[in-house]
Amino acid sequence: MTVHSMPVRSQVRLADAGDRGAIARFLAQAPDATAFHRLEWLEAVERASGHRTHVLMVEHDEGIGALLPLHAVHSPLFGRALVSTGFAVGGGVVGDAVHVDALAQGASELALRLSCPTVELRGGPLPSVEGWHAKTGSHAGFVCPLAPDDEAQLVAVPRKQRAEVRKGLAHAMDIRVGSGAEDRAMHYAVYAQSVRNLGTPVFPRALFEAVLDAFGEDADILTVLADGQPVASVLSLYHRGAVMPYWGGGIFAARALRANDVMYYALMCHARRRGCDRFDFGRSKTDSGAYHFKRNWGFVPDPLAYAHWTADGMSPRDVNPLSPKYQARIRLWQKLPLPIANVLGPFIANGLA
Asked: Which sequence ranges form a coiled-coil region, renumbered to this chain (predicted)?
């Protein structure tokens, strides 16, 4: 990202439908654009959830200098917020960092107009204007290069975790990759059970459908089957040579079969064969179970920083499942029959964007 040494006067405006082509060209060339900045992501989230997309942009004589995509999240349970971006683990300002403060100021003004008491930036450079607060140390990202072949990929896994993968491979489970109707149905069934077991409401199926439709060849589903039945499944995104296993999980039987371990190893091999050179394990909360699971695979945590703004007299919204106030509800959710959890879950989770 380019940073100018001299201040630049920034004119921020809200993009309209006529800017779509210019935004797409800008994002295609911006080195810091993530999968969660892409128009495919923004439009899929809006279509599936109803959370409207707003893109703030700074223009100069040569075109767009920087932009900030946002979703206006509305929920009767969790309130309203502007987030960059919805249902994502990335986002924030993309482009010339000299425009960060102007875009952050524009975001807080837009939030007030939309009656959103909070703005959340999930990545990108941090604003330094009054009212904005940085949050560091709470999350880490995990990215590692892929090995040149399947055997080298297995050897690259640390010894203890490699042993778990080998135990799973010994079960000779089948691997299926696709994005058709059957792949989607198997993935949602597995994922819904997985998150219920964790005490978390499942996202609407329409969200997965919309992302798969929008990303086309840049998204797919890998499913592990034992005796013909899906036991672990993951929906992955592909962006600029990196694969990100984004929505994945396993049923109860997956643990004994080491199906999740097989799933991630199979995805690494599959991604390399389709031309990827990096495995992006996404973000995890520091010291959480997922954080240590990824470290066991040999990934080195890279601390992440976020920023948020809250209107005067208001408190930031709390959608952190590890928050103490949610622990009793999580325990209750884990006991719900799966059909009931699958009916109630999407309504609740739609506000957790």
From this structure: none
Per-residue tokens: 344: 């109630």
Checking if the pLDDT of 7 tops 90, the result is no
94-95 vs 63-75, strand pairing mode: antiparallel
Short-list 288, 242, 243, CA closest to 263: 243
CA-only gyration radius of the chain, Å: 21
CATH of region 147-276, choose from 3.40.50.620, 3.60.21.10, 3.40.630.30, 3.90.180.10: 3.40.630.30
Average pLDDT over residues 224-232: 97
Alpha helices in the chain (DSSP H): 20-29, 39-49, 100-113, 150-156, 159-169, 181-198, 205-215, 252-257, 259-273, 289-296, 327-334, 338-349
Nearest by Cα to 209 from 47, 343, 89: 47
Start-to-end Cα distance in the chain: 27
Stretch 340-348: mean pLDDT: 84
What residue spans define the domains of the chain? 12-140+304-317, 147-276
Domain spanning 12-140+304-317: which CATH class is it, in words? alpha beta
Work out the angle between the directed axes of helices 39-49 and 205-215 (0-180°, nearest 10).
Answer: 150
Tell me the average pLDDT across 188-195. 96
- Residue 190's Cα: distance from chain center in Å? 19
In angstroms, the Cα distances linking 237 to 122, 185, 305 are 18, 18, 22
- Contacts for 40 with CB less than 8 Å, ≥ 6 apart: 211, 214, 215, 218
The secondary structure of 137-193, three-state, reads EEEEEEEEECCCCHHHHHHHCCHHHHHHHHHHHCCCCEEEEECCHHHHHHHHHHHHH
In 10 A of CB 289, how many CB atoms?
Answer: 10
Which pairing describes strands 63-75 and 12-14: parallel, antiparallel, or unpaired? unpaired
CA dihedral 97, 103, 107, 109 (to 10 degrees): 150
pTM of the model: 0.91
